[in-house]
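Below sits the subject:
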Amino acid sequence: MGFQDIADAPIAPRPSGQRNRVDVQLAKMPPDEAVHARRILESDRSAEHVAELFTAEGYPLKHGSVRNWRLANGVRQ
């Protein structure tokens, strides 16, 4: 493949190969609980507070994971 073919080809996003920890924890929850957990993630609570709430319920998270999840999902902070 020449440079012209490469330059004209659409750019395919490269997956990082790693899911955000929040998505992993949401997948472990019962569906009805996950709905409320998403509401908390989308709330005005700080990332630190949300991470503490998840951890207290048995779904350990760090505030950086909450922040990254919010950025990836378009949640204002």
About this structure: The CA atoms of residues 21 and 65 lie 6 Å apart. The chain has one domain: 19-72. The chain has a mean pLDDT of 89. Residues 19-72 form one domain.
